[in-house]
Amino acid sequence: MPPFSGAPSGNGMAYRGLIPRATRRSSCRGQREKDMGRDNDLRTLRYWRDVEALTAPSVEDEADGPEDTVRHVRDGALPWERGQRIPNPAVHFVRFGIVPRGDYDRALRGLLGAAELEDRDDGRRAKTGPLTFLGVLEVGPNLKEVEFRPDAHLAAFAVHFAELAGANVSGYHDRLFEFFEEQKRLLAERRREPGNEDDPVGMDFVRAMARKAASLLGAPPPVGGAVEAVVVSRALVDREGRRRNPELPPVNGFYYDDLSAAIDAASRGAPCGLVAGYLRDGRGQGRRDCLRPEEMRHALDLARLPDGRWPSEFPLTLMQQVAVNEGLARLSDGGIFSVNGPPGTGKTTLLADIVATVVVERARLMAEFRSPAAAFREVGRSMADEEGFTPDSRFRDFTIVVASSNNGAVENVTRELPDAAKIPPARRADCARFTETAAALLNRRLKAEDEDAEAEPVRPREAWGLIAAALGNRANRGAFCAVLRAKEKVPPGEDGSRPRRDAPSNIFRQLGELGRLDWAAARTAFQTALAEVRRLKDEIAEHERQIEAAARADAEAEAAGERHRAAEKDAEAARQDVAAIEGDLAAAREILAAADRDVDLSRPGLLARMLAALRLSRAATTAREAHEEIVRRRAEASAAFQAAVARGREASRRLREAEAAVAAGAADKAALKRAADEARRVAECIAEAHGGIADIASTLELPRERMHQRLPRSSNALDAARAEVFVRALGVHQAFISGATRQFRRNLSLALKMVGGEIRPEPSAALDLWATLAILVPVFSSTFASFGRCFANVPAGGIGWLIVDEAGQAVPQHPVGALMRAKRALVVGDPLQVEPVITLDEEVDRRLHERRGAHPVHRSTATSMQVLADRNNTFGTFIAGGDEEVWVGSPLVVHRRCVEPMFSISNTIAYGGGMVLGDGKPEQERRITEGDPAHSVLPRPLLGPSRWIDMLTDRGGDGHFMPAHAEMAAAIVREFMVRGWAEGARPDRLPDLYVISPFRTAADGLRRLLSSRRGWWAPGVPRKAVDTWLRACVGTVHTFQGKEAEAVVLLLGGKTPGAIRWAAGTPNVLNVAVTRAKRRLYVVGDWDAWMREPRVRSAMGGIEGFRSSAEAMRASLEASLTLAPSLARHAGPAPARDLSGSRS
């Protein structure tokens, strides 16, 4: 009999009767909610892909370099057809179907019904080239071979544009590829004709592809214009004879493919990493205010304190440790946790402790193995057809990747962690690991995603050890592999050959020099360090128990004292009662004695009694009655006496009890005081042994400014022991590598091939290779733009730790690829600093958002990754960010970058006074300004205190560029050079000074001015260095997120009230500009015009002595006036004006 034969057969309804109705309803509701959530996710993901797709790629500007050339074809012939110089050998990328961007933008707005917005001149919109294209052909070095891969070489914007226009584009890729193959066949036939054997790919081929693409699209973007094609030729060999592997940025941008992959996974219900959690709307669900004392107590529980920490000189502050503890606890099984990091609050310091924790936990796993080799299993050819070793799968959970939209943020973390300054000198020898490799990586220039951007000069730094490396784009990955495989020449041999050997930075050479370390000793040292931390934690817990016991005993002693005092009052009252009753008793005794006498005297004789009884004598009767009255009164006196005696006994009893209570109260109080003293003595002994302990109770009672500077439940001894655990964990890593040399070297070799793009292992093998590489280099970094290519083979959830820095600058769709590959993400940033740079017109974005029906908070141009992560983090607080309170994830509070007035300006503008200035900043600034002869520190006052240089609005110049204001800024820049304030600050001898403006035209105008006067302000400095400085140090606010300089010139610009209102309308722009300055801020602008804005007035208007005239500033400039006469013409003394803007 078949199973369930007694049940109806046929469709699934056969089982309905077996399921309780309530369960069915709950199951259906849960499935509906799940489906609804997936549908919402897909709407957002598809909208975000639309944004990326319709952001058309730019063609390169014309260039004629020795290794790379860019030719714009306007005359109907490709460069090799016209005989133009091209690199040889080279690969040639021919962009066809050229579309003028202005025409495309207008057509796109027309399709969507989007109005053209006024350019705010703010620098937030990313620069794009004037031309875009439909596709790319790849022509080989012999100019005869041509490749076309539709998925990689066709621009998606054209397809999405045509779909918006209502065209049917199904089969577009396949049909165009078929056409390409047909064109190749025709070209091959032509070459078989005599005399045509060497015919190259020509412009006729390119035109045919462009025409066919436009035809197949049906409603293509507006192709046409003077430029028919753009040819990018990239040499295969550089000038030094080294092989190059030329590539172009992805045709469809850096994010399109990952968004498509996320859409596909979400549609199928396949694993998608952290994407679903990132997109959920968790606003307001179970939020806990982390600034409440009970939340701090819970977060700082010693059980949550990591056993290891970064061996810095000082421990974290209170809210840094709260963020670390709570973040680690909430991310233990995966997820997203956000940290709000206002400027200068120690984000990198916090990240270093997270890194230390992960390193310690991996060392804990390593220590489980009796021998390092036992952690690996030999496998066959599963790693891209090469043999390797599979480490224990648990090692996959420790790979750390730092990511950001900001090249500078990624570089900062990668450079700071291995810098020797990050480790106290006494610890460096113990921490040292592969220092030659670390130094070579630390001191190389990193390649930015922007092909035109030149990296800032790198100041040589000493590295303490190999802890982090920047990967990301192909250039950085290639450089990383080159450093780890580096070779060097040796003296020629007898036969004249020049053999090469492993260079000092070559990791395989260093592995060979590492030798065989004592694995058992490394494990023992690590476990001993862990045990010491556990012991010290137990002692601190005991210290807290004793402090609490002392507090309880003090409270109970106080209560006992109250009882004692009450008992004394009762005893005194009882004594007074006894004394009063004794008087009453004496009186009653006298009354009774008198009554006894009266009875005796009034007693009638026998005859009188007889006569009274017989009622024979009235006198006898009266005498008898009188006697009886006296007897009655005597009875009353006796009763009163007895009552007095009883009261006396009761009073005596109460007195005895009160005196006993007094004695007991005194004894209790004394005992409790002894107990409190003993508890304090024990606590003091523990604290003395620890070098001082900050207990949590007294910390939370401190004024806010002091409370946040401390770390409760910590001690000097515990800080040192936790740092020792990290040091010993590094030793375990070294011994582990040396103990599994064969396995590790083999996997490392494969991992470098994977990173360099030489092999593409299967996802599982890729995870094992990354896990192996992470043992050597615990932290990798990448921009979001390069993430998909760098970690192409990593499956969903494969990266153990994703740390996102400057998340407030990331548009919401750019992290999707990283989140898809991550198991857990720590998101660090600040929604009140610079907003993300956007690539698409905001009105077009709004229309695309409406078209897909995505969640309102997911609009690309109106939010950031930080906002979404904060929104879903239930552990945080509200801050007074601008016009309304903003919920942020676990906030950092102590600011250590800026001195006054920059700190207070930022704190007022953006954080509602929520930040606290770090201890010692005023004194540190005083020593720098006045000098410190005892330590041979010369005075460095710069141009005097920070100030606002008040200059009337200058109506000259384009946009918001004001020539007179720019002249003042240029004079300040020159003054830094004249006075030698640039010496030692930067390797290029140029000032550690930023000139920042809210407006692009103001920044561009000053850049042009300084470039044209290079000999005036930077004599003797090479043009290339000056140009690099101008690009890096003069710009809009969006250029400087994550950076800092000794001084900042804030060139306000703003010719119209509307422009000023925009710049000051939110805290972001001014907050970032002001907090780039560590020591001095020189604001150049029209005081009255800007003081009309409440935010500016409240933050800067009341600073004593801040407003200064241009004449006063000129007086402090030593030589600038004679060389900049226009400064004198344009910046006459400003009339006195009051705060409201009226003239006096």
TrEMBL record:
Residues 1-39 are annotated as: Disordered. PANTHER family: DNA-BINDING PROTEIN SMUBP-2 (PTHR43788:SF8), DNA2/NAM7 HELICASE FAMILY MEMBER (PTHR43788). GO terms for molecular function: 5'-3' DNA helicase activity; ATP binding; hydrolase activity. Residues 526-591 form a coiled coil. Residues 960-1086 form the DNA2/NAM7 helicase-like C-terminal domain. SUPFAM superfamilies: P-loop containing nucleoside triphosphate hydrolases. It comes from the Bacteria. This is DNA2/NAM7 helicase-like C-terminal domain-containing protein. The keyword Hydrolase applies. Pfam families: AAA_12. Transmembrane segments: none annotated. The keyword Cell division does not apply. Keywords: ATP-binding, Coiled coil, Helicase, Hydrolase, Nucleotide-binding. It comes from Teichococcus aestuarii. Residues 30-39 have a biased composition (Basic and acidic residues).
